[in-house]
Design a protein that fits this description.
Blueprint lengths: L1 H9 L3 E3 L11 E3 L1 H20 L4 E4 L4 E2 L1 H7 L1 H4 L1 E6 L6 E3 L3 H9 L11 E4 L2 E5 L6 E5 L4 H5 L2 H7 L6 E10 L14 E11 L3 H21 L7 E5 L11 E9 L2 E12 L1 H5 L4 E2 L5 E2 L2 E8 H12 E3 L4 E3 L10 E5 L5 H15 L4 E3 L5 H11 L3 E5 L1 H6 L1 E6 L5 E5 L3 H8 L3
Parallel strand pairs: 3-10, 20-21, 20-22
Antiparallel strand pairs: 1-2, 4-9, 5-6, 5-7, 8-9, 10-11, 11-17, 12-13, 13-14, 14-17, 15-16, 18-19, 22-23, 23-24
Helix pairs in contact: 2-10
């Protein structure tokens, strides 16, 4: 993790937020490469969840909503973590994170005693208005409620009929007691969620729950996550969220243990009934639908893809990201920077490919160092224009993972890369 986090900062994937002022725990900025990786991840999720399906539509709800939303949803009452406080220095920790508490005890020479666990609400307060008293509201603790409060709006403005889903990607905020493990547990993060509505039938709910488990696992596998590092874990009764009838986590085996990547939840009719929302079918039957949720973290997924891709050999560091996710798809090099003919042809190819793909240009140093620099940021292919290119209009294309090289006609480059990028 130390080497990965150092790479992320050095190469422009992820920076500590407001670092010049000492940073702020639980907040991160995505650099030039990080934002491309993040956008690729979100783009593919939206493509598979919305564009490729007829039963799902999209939504983008506001971050701040009427506080009554959170009262009705139960978040002001039940959206909590257990908190304990060190009586020596008054630092606070989650009561269920025993390892962190043990590490903290070693920092004190005297014996540490802890307060009794108490519930700590994770909602982040904000105050609106220009005069006192200002109106208290909340930054959303999950993006889900924006879907539910727009349930009637979506039905009345589209042709969707149950069963159907509403997909959303957006920022959420939680007043985490102990953010940590790089971007895994943050106070500001991004979610990609599906809320799938169906008849209030327990067997249909179970079938839909199982269906989305398979779909979401297959999605991560299609982008290259190692199957042996993924598993489903069923929630125990005492750890289910207040809205969940059933819940399972798709977990990834990280350097800090098995951790949640995405949650599949049977929310039953909890949310719509709390908001007093119903659905009337074509036969005139009115009921409160059940909801199956697939909720994943964009930041967590990105972190696990980076961990999974990070590879060290004796000579080089390689990010073996799936080509679709890779921030830069193709790097273009002239073999020598002081040969005008090579540079001119290479620039022409670079500008042409850049119209379709995110490309990098590099003419510094020797060709080996340029290859290794692109390996480190996950660029799948490096294209070199050499003296043979001037004669037969072919270039050398080098594969990141195998280092194999092949000659490809310049006129065939777009077709060549298009086939390579098919998932």
């Amino acid at each position: 993790m130390l080497r990965l986090t150092a790479l992320c900062k050095r190469r422009g994937f992820i920076f500590p937020s407001s670092e010049i002022y000492g940073g702020l725990a639980g907040f991160w900025d995505y650099g030039p490469l990080g934002v491309e990786l993040k956008n690729n991840l979100k783009r593919y999720w939206w493509q598979t969840m919305v564009y490729q399906r007829d039963d799902i539509v999209g939504l983008d709800a506001s971050i701040i909503m009427n506080p009554q939303v959170w009262q009705a949803s139960g978040h002001l009452e039940a959206f909590t973590d257990p908190l304990v406080e060190c009586k020596v220095c008054h630092q606070r920790f989650r009561a269920d994170q025993k390892m962190l508490q043990e590490c903290h005890q070693k920092e004190h020479s005297e014996k540490v005693t802890w307060t009794e666990p108490k519930a700590f609400n994770l909602m982040t307060e904000v105050f609106l208005g220009v005069t006192e008293p200002k109106q208290k509201a909340y930054l959303r603790g999950e993006i889900t409620q924006g879907v539910f409060v727009n349930f009637n709006n979506v039905i009345s403005s589209t042709r969707v009929k149950i069963p159907f889903g509403i997909a959303q990607i957006g920022k959420a905020f939680r007043n985490e007691i102990t953010p940590g493990n790089f971007t895994f547990r943050s106070r500001e993060f991004e979610q990609m969620e599906l809320e799938y509505f169906l008849e209030p039938d327990s067997q249909k709910a179970k079938n839909t729950f199982d269906y989305w488990k398979k779909e979401r696992l297959a999605w991560y596998l299609s982008l290259g996550l190692k199957k042996e590092k993924l598993r489903f874990r069923k929630h125990e009764k005492n750890e289910k969220a207040h809205y969940a009838r059933e819940a399972e986590d798709l977990e990834y085996y990280s350097p800090f243990g098995w951790k949640e990547l995405e949650g599949i939840h049977d929310r039953g009719d909890w949310d719509l009934s709390r908001h007093k929302l119903t659905y009337k079918d074509e036969q005139g039957k009115e009921y409160t639908p059940f909801v199956i949720e697939a909720s994943g973290g964009v930041d967590r997924a990105l972190l696990f893809f980076l961990i999974d891709a990070y590879t060290e050999t004796k000579k080089r560091v390689i990010l073996k990201l799936h080509p679709y996710l890779a921030p830069v798809k193709i790097a273009v090099f002239p073999l020598l920077a002081n040969k005008a003919a090579l540079v001119t042809l290479a620039k022409k190819i670079y500008q042409d490919l850049k119209n379709k793909y995110v490309c990098a240009w590099d003419d510094r140093g020797n060709i080996g160092k340029r290859y290794y620099a692109q390996d480190e940021i996950g660029t799948p292919w490096c294209l070199t224009v050499d003296f043979q290119s001037l004669e037969d209009k072919t270039v050398t294309v080098r594969d990141r993972d195998t280092t194999r090289q092949e000659r490809v006609k310049i006129s065939q480059l777009k077709n060549y890369f298009e086939k390579k990028l098919i998932i």
